[in-house]
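Sorry, can you check?
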Amino acid sequence: MRGDLPSKDAGRILPQCDVVGITGTSFINHTLEGLLALCEKAFVVLIGPTSPLSSILFDYGIDAICGSKVVEGDKVIQSISEGATFKEVMGVKRVTLTR
């Protein structure tokens, strides 16, 4: 997207930030630890439906976790089986945990 910076600039940019949003995908691509090391002074928010809703993450420098919780499993299964995108999935509640 226009205005996006390449990941190679993270080491220069993130230490200057007051607030940083990191997607839950950083668990999958094994970048979370390195990103957190660059955000020592920032308020860090882990964002997205793949974000684990675990308060243990607060011990590692994350200040808030914004994720999803299944509240009606049958609706989730039906939505997914019908090919719904995440925004269309029924039976999911968006939640935020804070330190």
